[in-house]
Amino acid sequence: MATQFVTRLAGLIDEKNTVLCIGLDPALPEQRKSQAIPQRYLNGEDENGGRLAFCLDIIDKTKAFCSVFKPNQQYIAGFTAKDHLELTSAIRKAGTISILDYKLNDIGDTMESALFHISRWGYDAITFNPFLGNMEKAVNIAHGISPQIGLIVLTLTSNPEAIKYQKEAFINKKPVYQDIALDVKRHDADGCVVGATGHITEDEMRMVRTIIGEDKVLLIPGIGAQKGDPLKAMRAGGKLLLMNVGREIIYSDNPHTKAEEYSKLFNDVRKHIDKSVL
Fold first, then answer.
1. Full domain range(s) for residue 192
2. What sign does the CA torsion over 148, 153, 157, 159 have?
3. In angstroms, rounded to a whole number, what is the distance separating the alpha carbons of residues 90 and 2?
4. Number of folded domains in the chain?
């Protein structure tokens, strides 16, 4: 049975007819030479104000073509509660859902503290790091908050190090990623993060979907800047998935047009897959 978050997400995907999730990664110009927020957002603003203004502008320009915005905590570190609330309010008013890419984990009391604040900031869901354990505790806390917070679990990630830690390492005679997927099913978390990059095969993605069932979401990063294969991901991922694109949209010359292109691409792939099944 689908969780509250997944039920709401599935309805929104159908309503807006898009599986696009836009990653909000507002890098400061001092961080790197390319793919950083333009200086004009920082003129007369503090760093928080500039990063927030950039995110709000991206939301306004792209909201018609996505179902979800995914701010990354590593890029919005330093945001005040007021900043977070302004961001989540804008996402909500745009008719979209927010996932805070937080990669939460710690002992129970510490997770409870984090989720207390994340709930007050207004986020609909977060990402969760299972490698310290405590998934059941995290799900119980997140789903015990009103309104519930969705928990999407790092399972088979887009970074190359996933080969060593998630595929070649074993728990109970299974690759780690499969054991994580079993825990997602067992503890009724809301879904899995599964990358679309080259070191992840279509069969591995399909295995995760088979384990967790059709009533949980797959959040799929690695499309765009990381050159992941959307056809592979969507063929293996089932119907309930989110295709995340960040830098290729938010740092493009025209985020509106780029978001529209990606949304159309994913819909065309979905139609192709549906026809091939008939």
1. 4-277
2. positive
3. 26
4. 1
Q: Which tokens is 16 given? A: 């807006």
The structure tokens listed for 35 are: 């793919």
* 3-state SS record for 128-160: ECHHHCCHHHHHHHHHHCCCCCEEEEEEECCCC
Stated pTM of the model: 0.95
Task: Look at the block and give the residue holding tokens 């804008």.
Answer: 90
How far apart are alpha carbons 54 and 146 in whole angstroms?
30
CA angle at residue 258 from 72 to 78, to 5 degrees?
20
Distance from C-alpha of 233 to C-alpha of 218, rounded to nearest angstrom: 10
Taking only the tens place, the pLDDT of each residue in 148-178 is 999 999 999 988 888 888 888 899 899 999 9
Q: What is the CATH number of the domain that holds 273?
A: 3.20.20.70
Q: Are strands 150-156 and 125-128 parallel, antiparallel or unpaired?
A: parallel
Burial class (CB in 10 A: 0-12, 13-18, 19+), 145: middle
* Helices (runs of H) and strands (runs of E) counted in the chain: 11, 10
| pLDDT tens, residue by residue, 173-195 | 999 999 999 999 999 999 999 99
Q: How far apart are CA 253 and CA 152, in angstroms?
A: 31
DSSP string, 88-103: HHHHHHTT-EEEEEEE
Q: Residue 266 is encoded by which pair of tokens?
A: 């994913």
